[in-house]
């Protein structure tokens, strides 16, 4: 049976790899060398300036602890503080830009300048108009001044109120919640769905409902903090594999199946593979078919967070669901 499972795993991996494949152009050698050289020079001068600040030859602009708090646990690690003082401050003017309009696709910026190398800023009174917004949490457009949208919001607030102030198990379940769940399920193409009010809590609070002690979580090294917190709260054993590396994943899964739980070596109650639909910390998406191939081959469970995944990838969902159903049928027949 194990041979059949391994064969099926390889077949499904080959099928999906033709449809889900990320390629990234490698930087030229001179670009990499100049980048590392620049970081090295800035770091070297940073340590030199720290020495000058320590002996009093250069003024220290960063916040410092009082003498009576020297024995307290430091708020930041030494390198984090070093990076903030000597590297981030040099380019700080590129971040946290104050705006003076709605955060739409195009907005207005308040011009500011610094007289002490970005430690402090002062506004000039000039406004920079028609700046393209390349990074905003307003990716759903709810903060824009749309008259039709505002009318709809006001109408729904009068109808349903600002909040239900109760859990859905008590008196917090409204008909509009059920309609939204049906709409989401129909949009994704699944039997049913469940909605939550916060994406972070969806991951961190529901993973403990899926796995617990005696279970194994196999997690991508670049998973979001909400997934990591949920895995820790579950009490399950956690193993981390290299980002989008199928060989690293396969090695962990083989060891998990062969060795079982620590000390007792009993089989795992559940093995859960956790990845993201689109990773927030890296511009990549997982080779979904490869994960599903492994799960179907040896009967693992698989979870993919799709917070930032549904909109750009919805065209591929029907194909993915069809292959999942086919994989389940094949595995069921082989297992029987």
UniProtKB/TrEMBL annotation:
Cofactors: pyridoxal 5'-phosphate
Aminotransferase class I/classII large domain location: 130-259
UniProt family annotation: Belongs to the class-II pyridoxal-phosphate-dependent aminotransferase family.
GO molecular function, one term: serine C-palmitoyltransferase activity
Native source organism of the sequence: Poecilia latipinna (sailfin molly)
SUPFAM superfamilies found in the cross-reference section: PLP-dependent transferases
Transmembrane segments: 29-48
GO biological process: ceramide biosynthetic process; sphingosine biosynthetic process
Pfam families to which the protein is assigned, alphabetical: Aminotran_1_2 (PF00155)
GO cellular component: membrane; serine palmitoyltransferase complex
Domain of life: Eukaryota
Keyword annotations of the record: Acyltransferase, Membrane, Transferase, Transmembrane, Transmembrane helix
Family annotation (InterPro entries): Aminotransferase_I/II_large, AON_synthase_class-II, PyrdxlP-dep_Trfase, PyrdxlP-dep_Trfase_major
Protein name: Serine palmitoyltransferase, long chain base subunit 3
């Amino acid at each position: 049976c194990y041979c059949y499972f391994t064969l099926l795993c390889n077949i499904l991996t080959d099928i999906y790899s033709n449809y889900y494949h990320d390629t990234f152009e490698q930087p030229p050698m001179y670009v990499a060398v100049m980048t590392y050289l620049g970081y090295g020079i800035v770091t070297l001068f940073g340590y030199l300036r720290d020495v000058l600040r320590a002996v009093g030859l250069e003024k220290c602009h960063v916040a410092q602890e009082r003498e009576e708090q020297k024995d307290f646990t430091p708020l930041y690690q030494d390198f984090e503080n070093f990076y903030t003082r000597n590297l981030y401050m040099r380019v700080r003017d590129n971040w946290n830009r104050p705006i003076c309009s709605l955060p739409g696709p195009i907005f207005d910026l308040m011009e500011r300048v610094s007289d002490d190398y970005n430690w402090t800023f002062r506004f000039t009174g000039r406004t920079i108009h028609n700046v393209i917004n390349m990074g905003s949490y307003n990716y759903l457009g709810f903060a824009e001044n749309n008259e039709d949208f505002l009318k709809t919001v006001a109408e729904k607030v009068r109808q349903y109120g600002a909040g239900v102030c109760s859990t859905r198990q008590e008196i917090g379940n409204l008909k509009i919640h059920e309609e939204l769940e049906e709409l989401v399920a129909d949009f994704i193409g699944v039997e049913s769905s469940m909605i939550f009010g916060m994406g972070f809590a969806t991951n961190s609070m529901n993973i403990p409902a899926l796995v617990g002690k005696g279970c194994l979580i196999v997690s991508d090294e670049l998973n979001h903090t909400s997934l990591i917190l949920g895995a820790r709260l579950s009490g399950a054993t956690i193993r981390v594999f290299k980002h989008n590396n199928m060989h690293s994943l396969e090695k962990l899964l083989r060891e998990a199946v062969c060795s079982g739980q620590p000390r007792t070596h009993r089989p795992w109650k559940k093995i859960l593979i956790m990845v993201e639909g689109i990773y927030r910390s890296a511009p990549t998406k997982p080779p979904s078919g490869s994960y599903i191939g492994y799960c179907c081959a040896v009967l693992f469970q698989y979870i993919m967070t799709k917070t930032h995944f549904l909109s750009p990838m919805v065209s591929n969902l029907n194909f993915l669901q069809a292959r999942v159903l086919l994989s389940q049928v094949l595995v069921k027949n082989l297992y029987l």
